[in-house]
Amino acid sequence: MAASTRAAVVDIHNNMVLELSNNMVEEDFDQLKLLLNNNPLTQVQMKSINTVGKLFTALMSQKVISYGNYDTLVRKLESINPSLCDTIRQCTGDIAKETEDEHDKGTTQGAHPKKDATYSQGQQNAAKETKIKEIHAEMITSLSAWVDPDLPKNWRTFQTLMDVYLKHVEVYGKDVKCLDDICRTLLAKGIIAYGKYDKLRSAVRKIHVEAARIIDDATSNISAI
User: Fold this and answer.
1) CA-to-CA distance for 10 and 89, rounded, in angstroms?
2) Same domain, 88 and 135
3) Exposed, middle or buried, 208 (CB in 10 Å: 0-12/13-18/19+)?
4) pLDDT tens-digit series, residues 123-179
5) Which of 49, 85, 154, 211 is most solvent-facing, going by the fewest CB within 10 Å?
6) Which of 193, 174, 173, 175 is nearest to 183 (CA)?
7) What is the span of the domain harbouring residue 69?
8) Taking the model in full, what pTM does it have?
9) DSSP characters over 97-145
């Protein structure tokens, strides 16, 4: 998928999540969580899920849903509030159209090889860099289902393990409010890099094997680019 198309797909998905967040009442949200509890999400994961956004992040990290494929969620939600399913179906259709347009464009461009050859190396590198950053961002978002201040035990464990590599204020300071804050510091200091997460993986592995698996998937996806 081209970087521009992927960005458009992510925008469609994010707008859907925002619309659902605005329209799903607390009772519907609680019932949906009940249907997802232990199938497919664990009780540990459920404790940290207090928004629609976090719910989608957890479901995507478990590969229960993906961009344009929300069938499992729709089946659960249908019995609670069918009107919300219409929002998801609209998103599914918009994503399908976006990817179809890319395919049609690629077919047309295939008839003009000289024009394709003008696509500069710089543009290719920029697209690759964007893709890598997207994978990294999705990894951090997924890891937040396991490492988050809303999960005090896991968060304290992670802070203790990061204290080995970072200054005290970089781990426990008042400006450190989420996993991404610490990961940005790790990146800036060269302790981790895009696709090279050994020290981060070692830390989250002590919290849960699923968290380590998230990093493994991201590393593999980045290596494949």
Assistant:
1) 15
2) no
3) middle
4) 777 788 888 988 998 999 899 999 999 999 999 999 999 999 999 999 999 999 999
5) 85
6) 193
7) 3-116
8) 0.51
9) HHHHHHHHHHHHHHT-HHHHTTS-HHHHHHHHHHHHHHHHHHHHHHHTT
